[in-house]
What we know:
With 144 residues, this protein is mainly beta. The strands form 2 sheets. A 7-stranded mixed beta sheet has the order 6-7-8-9-4-3-10. The chain has a 3-stranded antiparallel beta sheet with strand order 1-2-5, with no helix packed on it. It is built from 1 helix and 10 strands; from the N terminus they run βββαβββββββ. It has one domain (14-125): Metal Binding Protein, Guanine Nucleotide Exchange Factor, Chain A (Beta Complex). It is globular. 5% of the residues lie in helices and 36% in strands. One zinc ion binds at residues 36, 38, 40-41, 50, 122.
Amino acid sequence: MPAMTAASAPATRTARCGCGALSATAKGEPAIVAMCSCTACQRRTGAPFGTLAWWDAADVAVTGTAQRYARVSERGRTIAYEFCPTCGSALVFRGEHLPGKVGIAIGGFADPAFPAPTVAVWDTTRHHWLDAIAAIPRLAEQRS
Ligand SMILES: [Zn+2]
Ligand SMILES: [Zn+2]
C-alpha cells in the first residue's frame, strides 16, 4: 500500500448525492470505515455490499433537503438514513449501534483514494466472488 501524503488525505471531505442537492462535509479522518454485506445494504444500494465511513456527529455538516428512512436491524436497533428526494442517493446514516456517530456513504465522495474499509461485516451473506475481485478483467473506462 502506498504511503499516504497530506495531499491525498485532506482534512475536510465533501460527499454529495447524484444530483448535488444533498451534501455532507466531514472534518478529519473517519473513525470507522466499514463494508457491509447484509441483505438490507444489498437491497438499499443495489450492489453486493454497502460502504460507510463514520465520524463523530460534531465533525459532520449536512446541507440540502433530505428524506429520512428508518428500519430496525436484526439486533432490534434502529438505523436511519437520509437520501435525496430528487435523485434517491442515500448519503447520511445514523444508527443506535454507533451512538454519537454519523455515517456517510463512501461512494458519495467519488474519491478513488478514499481510505479502504478497516472491517467487513455480515460475512454470512457476502457475495462469493468478492474474494476473487482482482482477477476480473478491467477496462480503464466504459465508452458505450
Ligand atoms: Zn440528489
Ligand atoms: Zn448492512
